[in-house]
Amino acid sequence: MNRFVRGSRGTKSYVMKDCGKDVEIHDIEEFLKWVQRMHMSEDFTQEGGAPPMPQKKLYFRGQADKSWDLIPSLFRKGNANVIERDILKHANISLWNEVHGFSTQLEKLVYFQHYGLCTRLLDVSFNPLIALYMACTEQSNESGFGAIYSGYKDCGQMPVVAELSADFLFNSANDDFGYFLQMNGNVEAARHIDAFSVPLFILPPIIDSRIEVQDGAFIMFPLLDESGLYRKHTINLIEKDFFDRRRAIVPDDCKSDIIRRLAEIGINCGTVYRDTESKIKAIMNDARSFF
Question: How far is Cα 273 from Cα 279, in angstroms, rounded to an integer?
């Protein structure tokens, strides 16, 4: 049965409509009501289908187009010719001054991802308003709606698996992950090779102010396929249980007003991205709003 909650935006009146597993929202207030429902664990697990987790803390992901798959940038259209380990090694050399002080290869991978290098990491945030901002920052290409997904924080992060995966991507001379583990003396990891063929939830070290401001975390897509071979293709998390099956969707004609409202409470491109260019852009956007 459909449920309706009254809402308003400016002089217009809207109805927040729950049709199946997609909830159409038109303003911040409606979105926060949806978030509140997601935090009701019984409602979340029974209706959404995601498995219950020990800690009931949600993370969120916003995408500008609801038709987009939940896959990392490395495997998206346009990056088919990118060789993962080559681009990471090139970035490691080119940005040596920025990353030479990092203690692990995983920290480097997170840093490169956060600044736009295509990797097998997918960004998420513990701040639902950051996800809403991401869903509204551009117009949808096909569907006419942005989308926000939610999921439970996975306490079984297996950070050692994530760190060894990153070590392989930066340091291996070939595609044989088993040989890489053997040569590096990781006998225990070799016995649990299946752990490298599932997605991982990563709580990153705060190596950059942007990660802290965005309350960011990541999902690392599996290093190996089901046969234990280095994975050069992807899976789609829409088909998995990492995210709840329900989404908040935002019509394109509501996005600009939501962006203005978010700016009023301190969420804009300058505060989200922190670099000088983004701060200048936020100032200009704010100035134009007065005309």
Answer: 8
- 8 Å CB contact between 153 and 53: yes
Domain boundaries, the chain: 3-288
Cβ burial 76-106 (10 Å sphere, 16+ → b, else e):
eeeeeeeebbebbeebbeeeeebbeebebbb
The set of long-range contacts for 1-6, using a CB threshold of 8 Å and a minimum separation of 24, is 5/30, 5/33
| pLDDT tens profile 126-142 | 999 999 999 998 777 77
Asked whether the whole model's pTM tops 0.90, one would answer: no
Question: What's the pLDDT tens digit per position in 14-65?
Answer: 555 555 589 999 999 999 999 988 877 554 544 555 544 444 578 999 999 9
157 alpha-carbon distance from chain centroid = 16
User: Alpha helix (H) ranges present in 172-213?
Assistant: 177-183, 187-191, 209-213
